[in-house]
Design brief:
alpha/beta; UDP N-Acetylglucosamine Acyltransferase, domain 1; ten-stranded mixed sheet; six-stranded parallel sheet; 4 helices; 26 strands
C-alpha cells in the first residue's frame, strides 16, 4: 500500500492515536453491565477519528481524501458529545473530561486545517454555515443574523436576535446577548461580553476584556430587565483593553478610549479619554493618530494627511 503522505507521519494522526489510547485506558475499568453502551460508543467514535485520517492519506486514484477527513472531523463531534454525557452522569471524572476535550479540540483544529488546505472552498461547510465562519466550539443560537465573511472564534456564544454585520471578527470567549447590533467590520477581541442594549456601528474596535454594562444599580435579587439602558458606540470608535463603559451614554465617532479607562459620560466625536473616571486629554484622527491643536484650530493627521478643525469644542475633518 502506498500513501500520498504516509499517515503514520501525520501530526494529526499521531495525536488522534494518543487520544485513542487515553480513551481506551480511561474506559478500561468502567463496569460492563452498567456502562457497556457508552463505553463501546466512546471507543468506536475515538478510533474512527484515527482510522479515517489513515484512509484519507491513501493514494487510491478514486479516493476523495477530504471525504475521509470530513468523516474523521465528524467523529470528533460524536466523541465530544459522549464526553459531555460521561461528565454529566459522572462516569468519567470532570477534570479528565476537560483534559480530553482540550486534546480533542487540537485534533479538530488540525483536521479542519487539513481540509481547508486541500480545498479552500469547503472552509465554511465544515461548520454547516455558508458565507461566514464559526469555530466548532462556538455556539450560535437560532435566530441570530450573521453577515458574510464574519469570523466567530473559540468558545464564543452568539444569542438569538443578535445582528452581526459583514466582515466582523469575533474573538475567543465572547458573549453577545439578545438584541445586540454590530455593524460591518467590527472587531471584538477576546473575553468581551456585549449585553442587551449595546449598538456598535461600522468599524468599531472593542479591545480585549473591555466591559459593557446595561444596568446602573444592579442587585442579584432585583429584576431590572425593564431598566436596561442603551449604549451606542458610533462609527470607527476604539475602546481599549480592560476599559469599562457605564451604560446609557454614546461613544462618539472615532473616539478613542484608552486602556483601563472607566467612561461615565457621553464621549464626543474624535475625543481621546483616559483614566478612572475617564477624562478627555485630547483628540484623535480617524486614522488613529493624536491631533495637535496647540498652534491653532487646524491640524493635519500625521498618518493620513487629512486636515481637521477644532471649533466650539468639536473636531471635524475638512
Amino acid at each position: 500500500m502506498s500513501y500520498n503522505d504516509h499517515f503514520e507521519k501525520l501530526d494529526v494522526w499521531q495525536k488522534a492515536m494518543e487520544f485513542n489510547k487515553r480513551i481506551y485506558a480511561i474506559t478500561l475499568d468502567l463496569p460492563e453491565e452498567s456502562s457497556y453502551g457508552l463505553k463501546a460508543f466512546l471507543r468506536n467514535a475515538s478510533i474512527a477519528i484515527a482510522s479515517n485520517i489513515a484512509e484519507g492519506a491513501g493514494s487510491y486514484p478514486d479516493n476523495d481524501h477530504n471525504d475521509y477527513y470530513q468523516k474523521a472531523y465528524s467523529a470528533t463531534f460524536e466523541v465530544a458529545t459522549l464526553l459531555h454525557l460521561s461528565d454529566e452522569i459522572k462516569i468519567i471524572p470532570r477534570h479528565t473530561c476537560q483534559e480530553l476535550r482540550t486534546e480533542l479540540e487540537q485534533i479538530t483544529r488540525l483536521l479542519r486545517d487539513r481540509v481547508i488546505e486541500s480545498n479552500p472552498d469547503r472552509r465554511n461547510t465544515l461548520t454547516g454555515h455558508t458565507g461566514y465562519f464559526v469555530h466548532p466550539t462556538a455556539i450560535v443560537d437560532h435566530g441570530a443574523v450573521i453577515g458574510k465573511d464574519t469570523r466567530i472564534w473559540h468558545y464564543t456564544h452568539i444569542m438569538e436576535h443578535t445582528i452581526i454585520g459583514e466582515k466582523c471578527s469575533i474573538g475567543q470567549n465572547v458573549m453577545i446577548a439578545n438584541d445586540v447590533v454590530l455593524g460591518n467590520n467590527v472587531k471584538v477581541q477576546n473575553n468581551v461580553s456585549i449585553y442587551t442594549g449595546v449598538i456598535c456601528d461600522d468599524d468599531v474596535f472593542l479591545g480585549p476584556s473591555m466591559v459593557f454594562t446595561n444596568v446602573i444599580n444592579p442587585r442579584s435579587a432585583v429584576n431590572r430587565k425593564e431598566e436596561f439602558l442603551k449604549t451606542r458606540v458610533n462609527k470607527g470608535a476604539t475602546i481599549g483593553a480592560n476599559a469599562t463603559i457605564v451604560c446609557g451614554y454614546d461613544i462618539g465617532s472615532y473616539a478613542f478610549i484608552g486602556a483601563g479607562a472607566v467612561v461615565t459620560k457621553a464621549v464626543p466625536d474624535y475625543a481621546l479619554l483616559v483614566g478612572n473616571p475617564a477624562r478627555q486629554i485630547g483628540w484623535m484622527s480617524a486614522h488613529g493618530h493624536r491631533l495637535d491643536f496647540e498652534n491653532g484650530n487646524k491640524t493635519t493627521c500625521p498618518g493620513s494627511g487629512e486636515t481637521y478643525v477644532l471649533e466650539n469644542g468639536t473636531v471635524k475633518p475638512v
